[in-house]
Amino acid sequence: MTGKTSNLLKLRRFLPLFITQFLGAMNDSLIKQALIVMITFGLLKSSDVSPGILVTLAAGVFILPFLLFSATAGQMADKYEKSAVIQRIKLAEILIMAMACLGFHLSNTYFLIFILFLMGVQSSFFGPLKYGILPSHLKEGELIGGNALIEAGTFLAILIGTIIGGLLIIVKHGAVIVSTTLLLVALLGWIASRSIPVAAAADPNLEINFNILQEIGRMVDRARETRTVFISIIGISWFWLVGATFLSQFPNYSKILLGGDASVVTLFMFTFSLGIGIGSYWCTKLLKGVISAKYVPLSAFALTAFILDLFFVSAGLHAPPSGLITASGFINRPTSWRILFDLTAISVCGGLYTVPLYAILQNHSDPTTRSRNIAANNLMNAFFMVIGAVIATIMLAVDWTIPEIFLSLAIANGFVGLYITRLLPSRS
User: In this structure, is residue 212 part of a structural domain?
Assistant: First the structure.
């Protein structure tokens, strides 16, 4: 990060929020990965349901609360003082993690999936607060840097949580170690949240509408009233579809096409997270604090180019018959560096693409409805990811290859780039 951006990490009006969201994202990924590994390797009590279905169910259960509760979460974030609500949410996380400890002790699959649902609920309420509070504590010229740090920190936390969750759960007494870690991280997150400065309620007289479908309609209509806000939401949601599709395909891409083991998947996730951080850094350098979408279309077109190149390098690959290779064996292959370069470039473009859109969404929203616009964004993110997962599943079911899925993403992303070019002209 630039010196000015990294200085935000020294400020009380930003650092506690950054730590709180970082630890929360890490806990989400830690418990998800631990549960997935336990299901996949039969470490839970036996079930008549196949591991593949249970893993898919777990992923869907975590996303479901964003569809169910984003409308209510956005209203609460606008109605109440945000720092106090964040503290209550992080306190609830401690209670949920205590329940998770019981679930791991009982080795109960469905109880742990229910815990994952509760974590999704907690995250769905935290999202509008996390992004809605930034404009209250940061100056306009700091929003790009603040969003860049949040974006990079979130992907780094996801990476750390995924690695820790996968590694710790398979060691001796792994369930106890994971349970203790989850509880400790939740406790640290709550402690950090207590230092977040007060942010006045945006609309204290707001009457919360608990009719979910009606409020979703109002929320989307409200976001559409401001053209730049709505297009930013569509742009951000599209990238989450692309990113979620890549992350979900990494295991099979590694095993089926490259003959790689779990360490290769970890290498891909590390590469992806590193690229997001680099892209976020470049974004702060290029924009110098100016909230502008001028690099977003260029990033979208570059994203298409690198996904296309990944398709071309992957199209003729087949796993060797000699067994799975490790990450060190993978990087010794000539084509591997091109694959790693493409994955890094794709995620760099993602950082350049999403950080300005988050800042535009925050800065162009009416302060009294900002959190509801962010909730609309979270809702659309979840919807796009579900649609992306369904489409990818259908493609695989009708014998499309993983490289062909990449090709379809590249083509669709090109149209998104054209859409953004037309509706988000350069701003200075």
Answer: no
Radius of gyration, alpha carbons of the chain? 21
CB neighbourhood size of 425 (10 A): 10
Residue 86 has pLDDT above 80, yes or no: yes
CA dist., res. 380 & res. 69, Å (int)? 12
**190, 90 in Cβ contact below 8 A?**
yes
Q: How high is the pLDDT of residue 422?
A: 61
Q: Is the pLDDT of residue 383 over 80?
A: yes
> Same domain for 148 and 288?
no
**221, containing H or E segment:** helix 212-225
Q: Is residue 213 part of a domain?
A: no
Give, as one character, the DSSP assignment of residue 257: I
Nearest to 117 by CA among 103, 128, 106: 103
Q: Is 200 inside a domain boundary?
A: no
H/E stretch holding 7: none
**189 and 234 part of one domain:** no
Q: Residue 205 domain-assigned?
A: no
Whether residue 423 has pLDDT greater than 70:
no
Helix H segments across 107-207?
A: 109-137, 143-168, 174-193
For residue 312, pLDDT beyond 90 = yes
266 by DSSP, 3-state: which? helix
Q: Residue 82 is which amino acid?
A: K
* Single residue among 148, 180, 195 that ends a domain in this structure: 195
139 and 268 in a common domain: no
For residues 74 and 212, give the distance between their C-alpha atoms in angstroms, rounded to a whole number. 11
**Does residue 3 register a pLDDT over 70?**
no
Residue 40 near residue 352, CB atoms below 8 Å:
no
Residue 269, pLDDT above cutoff 70: yes
Mean per-residue pLDDT for 254-264?
Answer: 84
- Residues whose CB is less than 8 angstroms from the CB of residue 359 and which lie 6 or more positions away in sequence, other chains included: 143, 144, 147, 291
Claim to verify: residue 151 and residue 266 sit in the same structural domain: no
Domain residues for 54?
A: 1-195
- pLDDT score, position 172: 86
Q: What is the pLDDT of residues 404-421, one digit of tens each?
A: 999 999 999 999 988 887
* 394 exposure class (CB count in 10 Å sphere: 0-12, 13-18, 19+): exposed
Q: What is the dihedral of CA 120, 126, 127, 132, to 10 degrees?
A: 170
- Are 86 and 179 found together in one domain? yes
Domain count across the chain: 2
In the predicted model, what is the mean pLDDT of residues 187-206? 93
CATH number of the domain within which 268 lies:
1.20.1250.20
